[in-house]
Amino acid sequence: MIRNAMPLFAALLLLSAAPARAGEVSSLYTSLDLDKCKLVESNPDEGGSAVWDCKGHEGMRVRVAEGDLRFFVSYGPDAAKQTAAGQTLGPFNNIHGTLEWRVERKGQRWAPFATILRYFWDSGDGRKGQTLVVTKLGPDDACHIAHVETAGNPRANEMARDAADRHARDFDCAASRSMRYMPGGAQSGN
Length: 190
Prior knowledge:
Elements lengths: L1 H16 L7 E7 L6 E6 L5 E7 L5 E7 L2 E6 L16 E4 L2 E9 L2 E14 L5 E10 L4 E8 L6 H12 L11 E3 L5 E3 L1
Parallel strand pairs: 10-11
Antiparallel strand pairs: 1-7, 2-3, 3-4, 4-5, 6-8, 7-8, 8-9, 9-10, 11-12
C-alpha cells in the first residue's frame, strides 16, 4: 500500500515545489489622509473641486481629485492622464483613509500591481453603502477593474483581493470593462 502511494506523494511534492506564476503576493497598507497630503489645486468656486498629491507605497504618487462630491484616485508620475483619473462611483462618495496595495515580490522589493480602496457612497435618496474599488496599476495606465459591494457580502475583502490577483496584471484598460460584485457576492459586468 505504501509503495503504491509513493508516486502520488512524489507528484504532490513536485507540484508544491513548483514556482508560482507571478511570485509571492501580499498586501501592504499606506495612509491616505488628505490632511497630510499636499493640496496642489483648489477651486472652491467650482463646486468645491480640489486635487491632492499623496505618497503611497515606496513613495509612489497617489493623486486624489474631488469634484462634484465624488473622488477620483490615480497613480504615478502621469496620474492625471490615466483612465483612473476619470473614474469614480456614480453616487456622491468619499474615500477611506487607508489604501491597500497588492504587491508581488520581485527580487528584493515588493512591486505594486493593484490597489484596493474603500469608497463610502450616498445616492442622495437615502441609500448609502460602501464599495471596494480595485484599481490596476500598469506601466502605462491605471484603471478600475472591479467594484465589490460590501453590503451582504462578508467575503468582500477576499473577493477584492482575488479580483486584483487574478485580473489586474492582464486587464486592458482601453478594451475591458470593470467587473462588479453585487451584495451577496454575485458577479456581473459593469
